[in-house]
Amino acid sequence: MFVLDSAEAVEAAVVERVPLWNDRTADAGPFDVVGDVHGCADELETLLETLGYGKVVVGGHEPGWSNTGYVHPAGRKAVFVGDLVDRGPRVLDTLGIVRNMVASGSALCVPGNHDVKLLKKLTGRDVQVTHGLAETLAEIDALPADARPAFTKSLAAFLDGLVSHYVLDGGKLVVAHAGLRQEMQGRGSGKVRDFCLYGETTGETDEFGLPVRHNWAAEYRGPAAVVYGHTPVPEPEWLNNTVNIDTGSVFGGRLTALRWPEREFVSVPAARTYCEPVRPFLPDPDPTPRLTAQQSHDDLLDAADVLGKRIVATRLRGSVTVREAHATAALEVMSRFAADPRWLIYLPPTMSPCETSGEPGRLEHPAEALAYYRTQGAPRVVCEEKHMGSRAVVVVCRDESAARERFGVLDGEVGIVTTRTGRRFFADPDLERRFLDRVRAAVAAAGLWDSLSTTWVCLDCELMPWSAKAQELLKTQYAAVGSAGRAAVPRAAASLAAAAGRLAGDEKARLDRVAGRLAGLEAGIRKFVDAYRQYCWPVNALTDLKLAPFHLLASEGSVHTDKSHVWHMDTLAAVCRADPELLLATSYKVVDVTDPAGVAEGVAWWADLTGRGGEGMVVKPLDFVQRGKRGLAQPAVKCRGPEYLRIIYGPDYDAAENLSRLRGRRLAHKRSLALGEFALGVEGLERFVRREPLRRVHECVFGVLALESEPVDPRL
């Protein structure tokens, strides 16, 4: 307590905020986090050299201490998770290397439970000399008698100065010996220190007499990656953004380091088994495929991870808000209709039309689409043919083992084809398998497995013709309108003509105007029927389908938003050439929107497409992600042809009185949804590529579906 007993004292008081010792958030690394060493100095030296550290001789040699240290030429820093001592053959050499690296600033170290037990022994506490402590004490006792007191004093000071855990790299990385819950990170207390040293136990013991540990990592939901050791495991495996890197070097396993931020594991094998483990941890060789810890955990998803109002952080657009009611609607759709959730890594965003055109007789025109990107600072755009099909997401793996390793699928599937709401496109599993076999064969023929160093790809496509559901809609709704209109309008026109013959003056003029509208409606209905017929044909075999991929969204290690749309078009065109019977390359044209001649070419290209019966075109900035003066620009805008719009808005939509009303459509909400869904879709893919838990990927997938529940004019 501080007592300020005068105005002068109050005026002179200064409050200074000092971070806790565990707060190293300003230290961004990069780091190499090293697992439990347990006196395996040979393996430690080999591992550090493998990581690129160079051996240095430390001056000012103290009795009993090694004068060896290691420094990385690129400034990387080692972080030791503790348990430096006990069981291994060179405990004091291990302590010397780590102490020297910490002193020189090339390493950090947190204490392990074995290190703290040694500290207690050195400071006169009564501890049981078990679990390898005897070997450590024997090394100390072997020192010259005159060096031993100074050495034990400095060793105790070193161990006592170790901080329970570190929060590093802006809070993205936490290192603690036995792990740490989210609410404890960055705090300092006895409870926090105990958790860091021992983890959390259930109070029970197993058949080996060892404490049964509570799996805190299975419940972890924090944003920081937690790297720890303490309990030996055969392989380091990520679980909910946590990883145990104690791979039991002293027990004949390996000494492992995690490179951060690369998230790469580097291991060296133990030279031999120095100590037999009480509980066997190295599995017997078993060829049976198994899931990773994360995949096993993801097999049971928790609705609480996607329900309620959610604010999803995205790299492209900051926070995207998902309302509670829409999240509930998304869960309803997913739980009733969705495919195997392990395949659902992406849902495509909605797409806004271009600004409403002022051209006579037009609702949409390319001039507005091209002008939009000119105002967004995108000098060149890619105009792509818009196929009249159903949006399809295709995930395909090189083989069954890739599907098992990357997606946790064990039933022999090699991929999936889903709709934009996450449903399977194919009810027939055999048809889907044959379809995917053709796609993956084309990917292989184009050399993508090797050129992308991947075993899987995720493609954004159009599947033609319209899906069975859409074709049924055409037959029951659009075709019914056309057929009924073709029959009813001539009868109505004949009746009006007969009535007009019996009238004169204003009454006859009014009927003549109605008859004129009917004549226009009859012509519109003929065009309406001709328009929808172009987008339907029977599907009796695999060869009746056409798949037009236009985005190579992601592959192992990469989300390809850093590539231009021309790269996507050309890369996928090579895939399509490998199987032209099934796959259709999307035609495109690059347009300079700052050049009037280029704009005219773009407009002419659209007019040619729509004049030949095409739906229209999609205009995208050359770069996959474009930022304008006000932030993220639309990833794409569609410009539909007049005859396709007839299907959407009705046979006589282009009548003057109808067009005038339709031009009052509002696009702001649609465009906001498009940006939010685009950001969520990319975020979900990036999380999947980073191998984050499936719940984190689904947060974005559900977010896209939830935003689709927002009320908006479906004709836009």
UniProtKB/TrEMBL annotation:
Residues 30-234 form the Calcineurin-like phosphoesterase domain. Residues 329-711 form the Polynucleotide kinase-phosphatase ligase domain. It comes from the Bacteria. SUPFAM superfamilies: DNA ligase/mRNA capping enzyme, catalytic domain, Metallo-dependent phosphatases. InterPro entries: Ap4A_hydrolase, Calcineurin-like_PHP, Metallo-depent_PP-like, MPP_PrpE-like, PNKP_bac, PNKP_ligase_dom. GO terms for molecular function: phosphatase activity. GO terms for cellular component: cytoplasm. Pfam families: Metallophos, PNKP_ligase. This is Protein serine-threonine phosphatase.
